[in-house]
Design a protein that fits this description.
The chain is mainly α and about 210 residues long. The protein is built from ten helices and no strands.
Length: about 210
């Protein structure tokens, strides 16, 4: 059976993105050339330009693909019918488990951080593609559970994800697990306890 034009185009695009990821991770953004990407992907440079306008467009597509994949890995199988404590635990455990084994994603995060000073627009695209998407999802979840009495759900969403990102940054991304170890289950227990602790009653309501 002959593949359809759309499927062939999709396969070629995926092939280019995989080759590009390999080169970007090894050479950095500035050090990556379309010639190197073409060689790694096993395609011609002309083929790359049929799919992507330039290197920035290629890296933009790569950010969108990598972040969408990891978002789905963490949030795609969460059972929102579980209790809030169970839902938050699932999210935290899946995220930290992903960072523990996904060397490619860890390398990609190091690349984004390392290039953020020279290419802030690309770093901002990453924030829009993943952290902001996570914040919106958690904010919506908190707002859908008024029984939690969370007054500022957007801030709490950032506190929750920020704690996990800080742990990932110091333990995995910056190689601190041997000099500043922390039990991930203990961290998750304490974090959920803080998020779901009963809210204090304002003095004017007493």
């Amino acid at each position: 059976m002959t593949p359809s034009p759309d499927s062939t185009t999709g396969l070629k695009r995926a092939q280019i993105l995989q080759g590009a990821l390999e080169i970007f991770l090894h050479q950095g953004y500035e050090g990556t050339s379309m010639d190197r990407v073409a060689a790694a992907a096993g395609v011609s440079k002309i083929t790359i330009y049929k799919h992507f306008a330039d290197k920035e467009g290629l890296f933009t597509a790569l950010i969108e693909q990598v972040t969408a994949q990891r978002f789905n890995q963490v949030f795609g199988t969460i059972c929102l019918d579980d209790s809030p404590a169970q839902v938050l635990r699932q999210i935290a455990q899946k995220f930290l488990a992903l960072l523990a084994v996904d060397d490619e994603y860890v390398a990609f995060l190091r690349l984004i951080i390392g290039e953020s000073g020279r290419f802030p627009a690309l770093a901002q695209l990453f924030i829009q593609s993943l952290p902001q998407k996570v914040w919106r999802s958690l904010t919506h979840y908190f707002d859908s559970h008024p029984d939690l009495a969370i007054a500022h759900s957007d801030a709490v969403a950032r506190i929750f994800t920020g704690t996990l990102l800080s742990y990932a940054m110091t333990q995995r991304i910056m190689h601190g697990q041997h000099i500043a170890p922390m039990d991930p289950d203990l961290l998750i227990d304490c974090l959920i306890g803080l998020i779901l602790a009963p809210q204090p009653i304002p003095p004017e309501d007493l």
